[in-house]
Amino acid sequence: MLPLHLTRDWRGLAAAALLAVLAACSRSPEQKEARFLAAGKAMLAKHELPRAILELRNAAQAMPKDAEPFYQLALVYLEMRDSTHAIASLRRAVALNPNHNAAQLRLAAFQLGSADDEVVLDARERIQKVLAAKPGDPEATEMLSISEMRLGQSAEGIAGFEKVLQQSPGDLKAALNLAKLKLMQKDVAGAEEILKRAAQANPKSGMAALGLANLYMVVGKAAESDNEVRRAAEIEPSNGAVLLALAATQMRANQVPEADKTYARVSALPAPEFKPLHAIFLFEQGRRGDAVAELAQLQEKEPNNRALRSLLVSGYLATDHPQKALQLLDDAIKRHPKDADALLQRSYFYLAGGKWKEMEQDVNTVIHFQPDSGAAHHALARLAVARGQLTKQRQELEAAIKYTPRLLAARTDLARALLRTNSPQGALEVLDAAPADQKSAPEYLAARNWALIASGEPEKLRQSIDAGLAAGGGIELMYQDAMLRANQKDFAGARKSLEKILEKNPESAASLDLLAQTYASEVSIEKAIEVVQEHAAKNPQSPYLMYEVGVWQAKANRRARARQAFADAVNAGARFPLPALVLAEMDLTDQNLNGARATLTGVMARFPGNTHARFLMGLVEERSGNRAAAVENYRAVVEADPANIDALNNLAYNISLDNPQEALPLASKAVDAQPENAAAQDTLGWIYFKQGAYQSALTHLKAAVQKEPNAVRQYHLGLTYKKVGEETEAARNLRAALQADPKVIEKVQ
Fold first, then answer.
1. DSSP character for 643?
2. Domain-located, residue 720
3. I need a surface site. Which of 58, 116, 405, 443 has the fewest CB within 10 A?
């Protein structure tokens, strides 16, 4: 029996709990909604976004026909930069309440970014309805002018902004938009006058001065721009946008210590988006250790800030501390098992380490809770690439941009996947469907340039590269510039771009390879090898550069030196399987089957899902006479990647030696997928031969020899001609086969 005082305490607690339950049950749906809404807004203010979503979903559940919870959810998703869910929530809000003006304007703002005039027209209609309910509303009036500007109705847009400024001369947003329109009409003086008036009307606004600074920068008046930026910083010394412009000005003037202090001031501002900017600056200046230490301090103060955590993970990886990064993510997932960001980040660790099942499990956990997560489908696409499942890669990328149209990385990956299947027009269509505001991004321009290269449009390519480089460029654009120059025999210009890339990213093997190609084309392969070796010697721990040394030694037919370079690359980077795979291929060529088997066993232990390693192991076992082991490896490849026709063909051939009936559908599938594949045609023809279907065999074996003759295929064809009674053709093909390989009879089974 409990002591009396504990019994009383227990009864008191039970009574209090019962009262709380009864009180909760007695609340009306309106009261419940109000309580959840207030909690959700409070969480949003604290930037605790997952908790805000939970509270607002509870509010929507309490009052499912009220628009306000969905509008507030949209604001949270906007803060998370999740436009897909934000738009869906806004559409739900306006469907429930078409008179929710704030939701209508937010939705219209998204639509104004579309490249589709029909969508912009719908936005204009929404804005006009808001103005009908709230005549003269400044925000709606400005948005209406923007819609007219987007529809090419510059005069109406200008008139709209001028009307706003007549009513509110100090409206800075209207002034900036009107100046933009004037600039589009090449009326620089008019734009300058508007911005000067705006600055006079807003003497305490640093943003007004910054608007004028931006105009001067666009028209090439750098000195005037810098003066306005510094004036803006004097007016508003705690304005984040102004301070960032000041830091950029200081960097252009090579005033790095001053920029360092300015970024420190930016990071000291209360807004969470500014906190990591000084650390990012330090990282870009090569002070990686200091940057990571600063990020770690910030993360310690805000352990639930996912953006900071992501930056810290990247910092740990860049400073070669992967275990610290993984531990950070493991800890986050232990605290919040449904943390999609942490699960996805950890999945990429598993991908890099060859733990593909673990990666798949993490990503599928995300998809279980967020089936429309574009980022999760993008991760599965990356996994499909690692497994060699190129068809699945395309499917997952298509799902990624379907669910998250603004996921530019998935869109550019899909464009590249289409280019690999010789579909430049398809790639351009995918890229053209991107949101309008993404089409000036360097990564977008670079992806589109690859499509232009594949389409054979050098003039458009040159224009696109120049526009991208003028807008700030990026390493990939610089590489494309170098490639185009090299193709046009401007080797000096190509080297200039490539050397800049290698200064920024010393491990860019592609850039080093192209640099070597310029020397091989203009000077000699000896000079190319010298350049590669000198650069690799500056970065002796880089497996990518050691691999590049091996590639160029192999091009010079120096197999021993190439082999040593590939071995050095393997020793330098256990997470980079390509050098080991090349060594295995060299061993296969040299008939060193035991050496190839040992190398591949190591690769498969580190990367158990690597289909190319397993395919090569199939070749090793086949050549060793271990047919059962070869079949096992080829079958594993085909199961992981049904589109791998080489594996499918080899599987069919090895099975056909004992069971032609089982092999026939496999061989037919290979030929259907790649009718131009001579090996597949030969396998199918030889299976038909074994089954006595000699006319069918003849069709496929003739195709194999026409596409790619070799001794075995000609011998197969000769035997088939003999069976159908065409002695002349039989003799000719058998004679050619024996001349090509006197031991061909021993090889044919």
1. T
2. yes
3. 116
What is the tens place of the pLDDT at every residue in 50-91? 888 989 999 999 899 999 999 999 998 888 777 778 888 999
Q: Which two tokens stand for residue 665?
A: 């559908």
Q: Check residue 18 and give its pLDDT.
A: 41
Decide if pLDDT at 338 tops 50: yes
CATH of the domain at 701: 1.25.40.10
Please check whether residue 373 is in contact with residue 367, taking contact to mean a CB–CB distance below 8 angstroms: yes
For the chain, what is the radius of gyration of the CA atoms? 33
**Mean pLDDT, the chain, as a whole number?**
88
Q: What is the pLDDT of residue 451?
A: 93
Contact 602, 617 (CB under 8 A): no
Task: Give the largest CA-CA distance in the chain.
Answer: 112
Confidence of residue 9 (pLDDT cuts 50, 70, 90): very low
Burial 155-183 (b: 16+ CB within 10 A, else e): eebbebbebbbeebeebbbbbbbbbbbbb
Quick check: 701 and 686 in contact, CB under 8 A? yes
Which backbone phi and psi does 81 adopt, to 5 degrees? 60, 35
Q: What is the spatial distance between Cα 729 and Cα 746, in angstroms, rounded to a whole number?
A: 22
Residue type (1 letter), 1 = M
**pLDDT of 398 over the 60 cut:** yes
Closest by CA to 681, choosing from 672, 691, 690, 692, is: 672
As separate numbers, helices (DSSP H) first and strands (DSSP E) second, the chain gives: 44, 0
Beta-strand (E) ranges in 223-301? Answer: none
- 448 and 431 in contact (C-beta within 8 Å)? yes
Backbone angles phi, psi at 243, to 5 degrees: -65, -35
User: What percent of the residues of the chain are helix, what percent strand, and what percent coil, each to the nearest 5?
Assistant: 80, 0, 20
- The stretches of 138-187 forming alpha helices (DSSP H) are 138-150, 154-167, 172-184
Contacts of 500 (CB under 8 A, 6+ apart): 478
Distances (CA, A) of 262 to 204, 575, 634, 644: 20, 39, 60, 55
Instruction: Find the domain containing 742 and state its range.
Output: 671-749
Q: Are 205 and 177 contacting, i.e. CB atoms less than 8 angstroms apart?
A: no
* CA dihedral angle for residue 318, residue 323, residue 325, residue 330, rounded to 10 degrees: 160
Q: Which among 560, 647, 633, 627 is positioned nearest to 603, based on CA atoms?
A: 633
175/150 Cα distance (integer angstroms) = 17
Q: What is the pLDDT of residues 705-735, one digit of tens each?
A: 999 999 999 999 999 999 999 999 999 999 9
Tokens 């080991």 sit on residue? 580
Contact 111, 119 (CB under 8 A): yes
Residue type, 8: R
Within-domain flag for 595: no
With bands split at pLDDT 50, 70 and 90, how would you rate the model's confidence at 12? Answer: very low
Tell me if 715 is assigned to some domain.
yes
Highest-pLDDT range among 133-142, 471-480, 484-493? 484-493
Residue type, 249: T
In a domain, 684, yes or no: yes
Number of domains in the chain: 1
- Quote the CA–CA distance of 214 and 591 in Å, as a whole number: 66
Nearest of 481, 499, 418 to residue 445 by alpha carbon: 481
CA angle 289, 293, 297 (to 5 degrees): 170
The first and second tokens of residue 301, run together, are 């103060």
* First and final C-alpha spacing in the chain: 87
Nearest to 137 by CA among 110, 107, 104: 104
Instruction: Give pLDDT, residue 190.
Output: 85
Nearest Cα to 515, choosing from 547, 552, 542, 546? 552
Does this model's pTM top 0.70? My answer is no
